Every structure is written in C-alpha cells, then in structure tokens.
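Retro notes, item 3 of 5
We never archived the inputs for the flavin-adenine dinucleotide complex last cycle. Fixing that now. Sequence and ligand:
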Amino acid sequence: MTDDAQDPADQYARVVVIGAGQAGLSVGYHLRRLGLTPGSDLVLLDRAPSTGGAWQFRWEALRLGAAHRVHDLPGMNAMGLRFDDADRSRPARDVVGEYYRRFEQHYDLRVRRPVAVSSVSRAHDRLCVVTSSPDGRTARIAAEVVVNASGTWGTPFVPWYPGRDVFRGRQVDTTEYRNATEFAGQDVVVVGGGTSAIGFLLELDGVAARTRWFTRRPMVWSDTAALDLEAAVAAVDEQDRAARAGETLPSIVSGTGVPVTRRIRAGIDRGVLRESPMFTRLDETGVVTADGEHVHADAVVWATGFRADLRHLAPLHLRTAAGGVVVEDGRSVDEPRLFLAGYGPQASTIGANRAGRRIARQVMDVLTAE
Ligand code: FAD
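Structure as it came back at the time:
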C-alpha cells in the first residue's frame, strides 16, 4: 500500500488515458466505440493547453509533406477529413491542431486540459492518478485501468560531451528550436542524424552565417522519396524487441535511412547536407573535431532525439536495469492494469493508430474480467 492509498480519491473512472496525441485519441475513439462514455467512465487528460498533441509545439517551418506524413486517425475519414488533402503551405502544428480539435469535438471525447498527471501509483485494487492544473489544484482519480499515451516531446535527449558546460554560446534542443531567424548571421552547429536536424539545416541555410553538421553515424540515405517499407518493418521489429526486453528504445531513423526528397537532394547537392563525424568536445567558442579542427559556433542545436516521457509512472517502479519498461503488445508486463500506447513499435502515427484498436480491446477484456 502506498501513501496514495490512504486518501480517498476525488473521482472514480474505469479508464484514464494520459495524453491526447495520436495515440491517446486513437485509444479514446476505440474505447468509446466499445461502449465507454467519455467524461465519466472514460477520462482523457492532457497537460498541453490546446489540441494537437506534440504537434502543437513543433517549429514554425515544419510542414506536412513527403518527410512528415501524419496518418489519419481512425474515424477521421468518416468525418470527411484527410491529412493528405490538408493545406501544405500551413505549419503542420496548425493543421494537426485543427484536425485533432475537430476530431475530439465530433466524437465528443471531452479531453480535460490543461491537466497534467504528476503520478500514477497502486492503491488497493485500483491505480491512483494524481493530477495538477495550472491554478495549483490537485486531484486524485481512482482508475481500474490506465492507458499511458504521453509521447516523447517532454523528454528530449541531449548526449553529454565534454565542454557542454563551458560553451559560452546558445544551446537549444529540438523542443526549443523556433525558427531560423533566431540564428540570423550566426555560426551554427547542428547535431543529429534525423529528419529534425535535416529540417533545421535546410531552414538555416542562407539565414545563418555558416552551418556545420555532426552526426554520430554516417548518414544512410534511402533512394526512395518515401520511407523504405522493408527497412521500416525491420526498424519497428527492433523497437518491439527492445520494448519486450525492457531496454531503452533505439531511434527509428537509425533503422530505416532517411528518404531523399527533392528538397533533401537539393540540400545534398548544395553541400548543406554534408555531415562530419561527431566532434569530441566543446570549448568556450565552438567544437573540436577528432582530428583537432576547431569549428567556431555561436549556437549548437541538439537534434538528438527523445526518450519516452514516463516520469509520472515512477511510483510503479517499472524501469528495468536496462533503462526501459517491459511492454508486450502495448501492455506493461509488470503492471497489467497499465497500457502504454505509442510506445516502442507504436511510436509513429500509423503505429499509434494500430495501438488504439489493439489496446482498447485488451482494456475491455480487463474491465469485463473484473
Ligand atoms: P504526442 O503527440 O507527443 O502526444 C502526447 C500527449 O501527451 C501530449 O499532448 C502531451 O501534452 C501529453 N502528456 C505528456 N505527458 C503528460 C502528463 N504527464 N500528463 C498529461 N498529459 C501528458 N510520426 C509520423 O508518423 N509522421 C511524422 O511525420 C512524424 N514527424 C515527427 C517529427 C518530429 C520532430 C518528432 C519529434 C516526431 C515525429 N513523429 C512522426 C513521431 C510522432 O511524434 C508520432 O508519430 C506521434 O505524433 C506521436 O503521438 P503520441 O500520441 O504518441 O504523442
């Protein structure tokens, strides 16, 4: 029994879903179809101020298109909405925010926001979900089942390199990058081998004075302009293996290669997208490469990926020594009343969609078995 078990809950819900991004909305949609009522026995919570999941925070220049493709949520086509028909001249954050808002309204999902979940713990035969609102109010919800769909945006990963603490310029991670004009006339070092780093370099080209690109591994360009499906299957399988073994999750792009769109091809040809092997350290004014070259930098942009944001699950003690949580088919092996949607092999919009259906069915099995 934990401390949480001592206090009565303020509310009871059969299922609490944490997060209303692609994964949480997909689960919510299917649970509603299977008979749960949003707002009473199904409660969706999101700490962000608006609709769109993590997309609402993405940088201005990001557009939906070849490199960034968001799959339609289940039930979206029945509303006459398709991301493929969306206006590609508008920022992705606005388009996705708007589509999700219409989706939530249409299916009456009653997402409560901004409500942050600060902890999930065991309390008798229930899970206790503690929430906090920006006005400082806290509440406890006793739930039979919790579906965690909190994504990764809250936990950007920045690797440690010697000198990170002595560098006098600006350091930003992917979640802090707004637009290229913030770096106008500066020397900018971009770190990371994924589509975020590539997007930043292309946007900074012609705005920053100079850019240099560093990656841990040589880039693997995929010849197709769309994701190579076979490589994608292998990368998702690798995510699944890591999730089942309770390991930290590898990056998807490291397994698939980056598709060369026309824009990327032009960047490679112009020499903007030419990576150097990772530098060995930073100093006060820049970075130093393995062969001793000093590269001056006013700013370092760390586009080095994310980790699953599971901090609020800490009281459940699910972390393994290998750094992950053991998850099989979207369900925690060590806490069977907890599901993780959008985790590991489900961490794409199409994966999140599939997760929604599979997890919702399993949740109903738990509820009816009680
Ligand atoms: P999110 O969209 O992150 O939603 C999680 C939600 O949980 C958020 O709204 C957050 O506010 C909420 N939350 C988190 N913690 C708490 C808490 N403690 N309490 C309450 N609420 C909480 N995938 C694709 O398929 N196509 C793409 O083009 C693509 N582009 C990407 C570009 C970038 C830069 C990144 C970082 C990822 C991209 N992805 C893409 C992966 C993408 O993030 C996922 O596909 C999808 O958006 C993730 O959905 P999600 O619901 O799991 O997470």
